[in-house]
Design a protein that fits this description.
58 residues, mainly alpha, extended
Length: 58
């Protein structure tokens, strides 16, 4: 059964993809798996940053 989760398609430069591919191999992952992890970490960091800003202004 196909996932009902939203999908995201991105286009990156060839050199960036090559680097991502090498990095993913080192981590025993595929480039999409690594990209998903990196995106999740970036989102968590941004949420934490925003939460900190809300506390400072309160």
């Amino acid at each position: 059964m196909p996932s009902k989760k939203p999908q995201l398609t991105i286009r990156i430069e060839e050199d960036e993809y090559s680097y991502l591919q090498e990095w993913a191999q080192e981590e025993f992952m595929t480039p999409p798996q690594l990209a998903k992890i990196l995106l999740k970490k970036a989102i968590a960091s941004k949420k934490k940053e925003k939460e900190g800003n809300k506390r400072e202004t309160a």
